[in-house]
């Protein structure tokens, strides 16, 4: 006969066992308004995104100001050089089942030319302050031209939320 303590000990998960994940039911496609709201919330709350330029993809921290995305990378890095040579850029946020894709143009900017407090806001949001480093960093303002967002195949239709820099109705 097994005691209650022995039963608990034998049924307790071990350090090497992991619980079996339970699939989350898909609630169905979101409306355009829900997708725009979710996209704007992600731009406000997320800290990191993926930046692609000329076939090179890197994760960078960012600041969204309501109209543009501010990123920073070492001035002489491959990404910095690529963005100065060709301003076309694609940004990606979120996991594969909650994607936000932003196509835009990156403008190299000096922090001094941005509104007061922008550097502090970038550092506060990202927990990273390029101004404190010995390496010279370049800031880029990415102005979205096209924004797409989707979670599942049922949201592929209507995934374009912004076209030519204007949010769609």
Q: What are the secondary-structure elements, in order, as H or E? A: HHEEEHEEHEEE
Strand % is: 25-35%
- CATH evolutionary superfamily: Electron Transport, Fmn-binding Protein, Chain A
- The beta-strand count equals 8
CATH fold label: Pnp Oxidase, Chain A
Q: In the CATH classification, which architecture applies?
A: Roll
Mean pLDDT: 86
Binned, the helix content reads 10-25%
What structural class should be given to the helix and strand makeup?
Answer: alpha+beta
With strands numbered from the N-terminus, the spatial order across the biggest sheet is 1-2-3-6-5-4
Report the span from N to C terminus.
69 Å
Low-confidence stretches: 1-18
Total number of domains: 1
What can be said about the biggest beta sheet?
A: 6 strands, antiparallel, barrel
Report on the architecture of this protein.
Residues 1-19 have a biased composition (Low complexity). It comes from Streptomyces filamentosus (Streptomyces roseosporus). It holds the Pfam family PNPOx_N. With 169 residues, the protein is α+β, with helices and mostly antiparallel strands. The protein has a single domain (30-163), classed as Electron Transport, Fmn-binding Protein, Chain A (Pnp Oxidase, Chain A). It is 23% helix and 34% strand. It has a 6-stranded antiparallel β-barrel. A hairpin with a 2-residue loop joins strand 1 (48-53) and strand 2 (56-64). The longest helix is centred in the N-terminal third of the chain and has 14 residues, at 32-45. The chain starts with a helix and ends with a strand. The relative contact order is 0.18.
């Amino acid at each position: 006969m097994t005691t209650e303590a022995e039963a608990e000990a034998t049924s307790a998960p071990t350090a090497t066992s992991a619980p079996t994940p339970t699939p989350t039911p898909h609630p169905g496609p979101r409306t355009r308004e829900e997708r725009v709201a979710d996209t704007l919330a992600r731009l406000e709350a997320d800290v990191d995104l993926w930046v692609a330029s000329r076939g090179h993809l890197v994760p960078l921290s960012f600041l969204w100001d309501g109209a543009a995305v501010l990123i920073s990378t070492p001035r002489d890095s491959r990404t910095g050089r690529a963005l100065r040579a060709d301003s076309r850029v694609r940004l990606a946020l979120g996991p594969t089942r909650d994607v936000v894709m932003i196509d835009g143009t990156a403008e190299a900017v000096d922090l001094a030319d941005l509104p007061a407090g922008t550097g502090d806001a970038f550092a506060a949001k990202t927990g990273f302050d390029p101004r404190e480093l010995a390496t010279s960093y370049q800031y880029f303002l990415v102005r979205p031209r096209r924004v797409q967002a989707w979670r599942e195949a049922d949201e592929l239709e209507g995934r374009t939320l912004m076209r030519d820099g204007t949010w769609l109705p």
